[in-house]
Amino acid sequence: MSTKSVQQDPGAIARAILDSNLYMTLGTVDEDGRPWISPVYYATDDHTDFYWTSSSEATHSRNIATRPQVSIVVFDSQVPAYTGQAVYMSAVAEELAGTDLDRGLAVYPGPAERGASAVTAEQLRPPSVMRLYRARVSQTLDPLPEELRAAVSRARSRLRPSDPRDSLAGRPVG
User: Fold this and answer.
1) Integer Cα distance of 2 and 47 in angstroms
2) 83 alpha-carbon distance from chain centroid
3) Is residue 138 located within the same domain as residue 148?
4) Are residues 148 and 99 in the same domain?
5) Residues 43 and 107 sit within 8 Å (Cβ to Cβ)
6) Tell me, what CATH number does 123's domain have?
7) Which residues contact 26 (CB under 8 A, 6 or more apart)?
8) Which residue, among 42, 61, 41, has the nearest Cα to 107 in the 3D structure?
């Protein structure tokens, strides 16, 4: 697929972002409504189900046990300033057990070239505190449209970055 066609197709942009990154930012909320975000290494084979391992005692894991609705963002933090794109998702997350655990381990940790070590079902069951989780995406927000990105870029170019009154300086796009 050409770069031009990827730039014009939000779905292709989203797939490229998801396929080229290793970590997602997982947003959870505790039972009192306090938000919590965590970076987690993920694997996906269909861009709909996202898998990760975590301690069942981690804040985000405890939050998922009481409120399974999560938000996810995946982005490349190594691109030049103001050129970043991201995929934003809402999902329902759960700890996996039984046959769901076995199906999840067919996907997680992804291909060997991603660099993560394989895990076994035995490593993810008690008495270990490590578990495999899945977030099933229910909604996505397309990456920032090119025309809006261009408008933001033009606005930034008219501002002086050293000016403390510059309300856009230092803000990521997306």
Assistant:
1) 21
2) 18
3) no
4) no
5) yes
6) 2.30.110.10
7) 37, 38, 39, 40, 52, 60, 70, 71, 72, 93, 135
8) 42
Same domain membership, residue 67 and residue 24: yes
Q: Which of 13, 164, 146, 9 is nearest to 86 (CA)?
A: 13
Q: What does DSSP assign to residue 128?
A: S
Q: Which amino acid is at 41?
A: Y
- Gap between the Cα atoms of 95 and 139, Å rounded: 20
pLDDT in tens, 95-134: 999 999 999 999 999 999 999 999 999 999 999 999 999 9
Residues 159 and 96 in one domain: no
Range of the domain at 165: 144-174
Q: CB neighbours (10 Å) of residue 164?
A: 7
Residue 114's region, left for phi above 0, alpha for psi from -120 to 50, else beta, is alpha
Residue type, 26: L
Q: How do residues 25-78 score in pLDDT, each as one tens digit?
A: 999 999 999 999 999 999 999 999 999 999 999 999 999 999 999 999 999 999
Rounded to whole angstroms, how far apart are CA atoms 103 and 1?
Answer: 31
